[in-house]
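debug: dumping io for the single-chain case to check the tokenizer round-trip. Nothing else runs in this session.
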Amino acid sequence: MSNNKAEDQEEADEDLSDELLTAAEELCHICNEVLDSIHSGNIHCHRMLCCGIAFHKTCIIKHTDFSMEKCFHCKKKTASDSKDFERIVEWEKQNKLWAIVMLGTV
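debug: decoded output
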């Protein structure tokens, strides 16, 4: 029985490891270049909480007509800080690593 728990824990660790590797190689949705440490609060990257996409701040300035009123990707209106917190919690419930990190920093 304890062997079964150990196997389950090992499998969970492998799943988390796979998710971390995938997250570490996340691409900017504008230039398709690798984002540097988006999960560690990199000031050069940003994530939209409405749809969860991430991008370089310089890319958004150079390549889009970005306004803070709507998301350039999903076209949803941006929300207040209290609504942003609710969106982070929704993403965290979907086990998104970036949301878990953001929730921890809040």
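debug: round-trip ok. The chain has one domain: 26-105.
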